[in-house]
Amino acid sequence: MTSHERPATPSAVLPVSAVQSALDAVGDIIAIVNNQGVIVMVNGPWVRFMSANGGTEATCGTGSNYLQVCDTTQGPCADEGPLVAEGMRAVLAGHADRFEAEYPCHSDTQERWFRMTITPFADGAARYATVLHRDITDSKHAEIRESDMDTEVAHEVRVRTQALRTERDELDSFVGAVSHDLRTPVRHIRSYMQLLRGRAECRLTGDDRRLIDVIDGAAGRLDGMINELLGLARVSQTALHFQDVNLAQVVLRAWANLTPETQGREIEWVAHDLPVVHGDPELLRLAFENLLGNAIKYTCGRERARVEVGSTSGDGEWIVFVQDDGVGFDPAYTHRLFGAFQRLHSDRDFQGIGMGLANVKRIVERHGGRVWATSRPGDGATFYLAFPKP
Predict the structure, then answer these.
(1) Angle, nearest 10°, between helix axes 16-25 and 44-52?
(2) Structural domains of the chain in order of their starting residue, each with its CATH number
(3) Measuring CA to CA, how many Å separate 141 from each of 100, 106, 154, 217, 378?
(4) Of the candidates 11, 107, 182, 261, which lies 20 to 30 Å from 163 by C-alpha distance?
(5) 148-204 confidence digits (pLDDT tens)
(6) pTM of structure
């Protein structure tokens, strides 16, 4: 024997008893069928499974035709029989590399599910298939529990969401009613203060006049806040008239309405292409008037300001932005930005009530969208509005 010759190896063919022993050691339910669908070998779990489900040696044991059994099966697994027979024929004929099916096979006392897998193999010219049933009851129960939990959670979310909407609607109605009722006494205060000033002008000292000015200014501010609350209530309660809306036209209308505020200002106005969304054109115009009005206000310290409006396409949504190069804001307070009466700048620097962005948020949310903003002090601000694509 040369150094390149290998010693002869013993035959790798196992005796039938060894194959049978190996199959019996497997926990899955296994049978081997020939190309006619006749069972040539089964393991112990197969025998026990078939016996427990009405099968006999004649119908499900070695020598029986499993294809015929599946075609004519009765009992708890009868509905799946014809489907399994069709899949087995395709595998044995070489038309499919594999067949899989999940099926319930419940007894009177137990719920059970199985996954059947049929895979072919060849022994020379002869073609066979392994038929394997695996008990997947535990995983199926876990899947059902998870599905039930998802359904329960989804139901709870729907219930909670509806409750929050109801509470918000009730709060909006309350705010609207209270704000309306407060307008009259506040206006009376302002009217009587003017009347008092006129009647007592000659007797008022300098301190008296300053006090009257403070009271009148506070009443005026309160009147403005009441009007803003009424505006928020209207935004929340107004019936929406949905239609396809070209946001480019809405933004141009909003900018045109703000023309008086731009008098004497040098503002570079940049408007890119904007999408068509499904919404209420009047409420959308109000939202953009608030955003553009803020951009005009907070860029007043610049000789030449720049306001830009554009959009990008997101995953299932259009993202529209309004950007300016004004004073910006501290990002640490972003969470306060869209709240009612929340202001990040003092009245001394910029007048306002602090309701504009709350209105924007409510309008966009009523359109199924969302809002957010980014900024750095002295570096301008960018406001984003996301709208669902039609």
Answers:
(1) 60
(2) 18-135 (3.30.450.20), 138-237 (1.10.287.130), 240-388 (3.30.565.10)
(3) 20, 13, 20, 69, 59
(4) 182
(5) 787 878 878 887 777 776 666 666 665 666 666 677 787 888 887 888 888 888 888
(6) 0.49
State both tokens at 190.
């302002």
Q: CA geometry: angle at 325 spanning 324 and 329, to 5°?
A: 90
Can you read off the two tokens belonging to residue 171?
A: 């709060």
Distance CA 245, CA 275 (A): 8
Task: Tell me which of 74-83, 337-346, 366-375 is least confident.
Answer: 337-346
Q: How far is CA 5 from the centre of its chain?
A: 68
